[in-house]
Structures are given as C-alpha cells and as structure tokens.
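G., the chain you wanted modeled:
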Amino acid sequence: MDEISACDPVLRVSGLRKHYGSVEAVKGIAFEVCPGEVVGLLGLNGAGKTTTISMILGVLEPTAGLITIAGINLARERSRALEHTNFAAVYAPLPGNLTVYENLRVFAGLYGVRDFRKNADAVLERFQLTPFRNVKCGVLSSGEQTRVGLAKALLNQPPLLLLDEPTASIDPASARDIRQTIRGFVDECRAGVLWTSHNMYEVEEVCDRVLFLSHGHIVLEGDPKTLPAQYGKPTLEELFITVARERLDDQAVRQ
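Predicted structure as tokens:
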C-alpha cells in the first residue's frame, strides 16, 4: 500500500450527492476523516448515512461529488482506493457455512493480505476469537458473528475503517469490548474510522468528532462531549432528538 501522510485526511468527501429518481438522498455533503480519528455519522433512519457509506465503498455510484481515500480518487482508481479501506456491519454477516478461519482466508485473498497466518492470528486474538477459529460462523451467537465481521475488517490493517452500526443487537458488555478494541486499533495503527450509531452513549465514548445528518444534509458537527452544551442541551441524546425534529436555529444548518 501507498504511504499516507499523518497530516493528510485518509478520507475526503466533497460535494457528494445521490439521487434516486426525483428523490435526493444525499445533498452535497462534505467532510474529512483524519488518521487516528473516529468520526461518528449520526442521524435518523433515512437520513443518508448508509447511502453515504455505500458510496464511499464504491457500492453505489454518486450522482455528483468527489471521494478520495488516502489521496486516491475513488471514481478514477476504484480498486487502488479500496485497498486502503474495509467495512463491517451487523447486516452484512460472513458466510455461515465456512469456519471463522476459512472466512478470514477467503477475505485475505480478496484484500491481498500477504502474511495471512500472522494477520489472522492477530485479529482472532484481538477479538477473543481464537477458540472459535474452526467453528462455522453460522452456529455462532450474534455477538460472536459481529466480532468475526470486525476481525475480517481489520485483517488488512486498513487506514480507513467504515463501521455501520457495528454494535447493534448485541449485549452491552460485548459492545463495550468492541468499542475498546476498535479504539485500541485506531490508537495503535493511526487508522481513521467513520462510525454510524444510534447509541449516543457509545458515540460519546468512542468518537472524537460527530457529523449530524438530516434529510441528506450535514447540519452540525463537533466534539460529542462539548457540542450539546453549545446548543443548550444536557446530553448528546437530547441534541440528537432536537436535530431529528429540526428544532435548531436555522443558523445551525449548513446547506
């Protein structure tokens, strides 16, 4: 992989739009994610979060706008850009008829991971999956399957990690462990993370910065620990509810 300057954003999104016929799901948004930074992408269902991530992954083609990953234009050099990223979500489980280790081997081949055994052992240990390495994914619990998906996502040590509600539908203890593990990976490898979640406690704990999406626009951004007080709200959850109901002063909205 190409070297990435610690001073340059690992992800840059500019003027990003997505139309579905007459419906505009994402409306010219712009943001960056820097190495070593966890950025929360927040909003109600339908706000445009998953559409945005799908465009960054190259799954959906933007109607307009620019996406660069590690300085590489995604539209012009899709394969090269995507070498620098990985993805996990609870709605994208790995094949259940393969064992944990077999799944990692398949995805290591897809991502061009050179030292598979070393990397596989490392992610299995990181997510406490070593005892399950020869167990088929289909018989694992939902929390264990979530950890396998995250192990896959870290297998190529991506400079950019995209996590779409990675702790949804799992117990609080497992969610806490996952947050700590991802935060450890970010601090060790200086990776950038774009993380969607509806859990505001989680967002406050793990994110350095948040972006609030509403109807395809980014309407607010800032430090999740200090942003609520700037708008007279006691908690991030209260601010989230206010944004969702569009009760902020119009000056807060960035079109």
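Residues 93-157 form one domain.

Shout if anything looks off.
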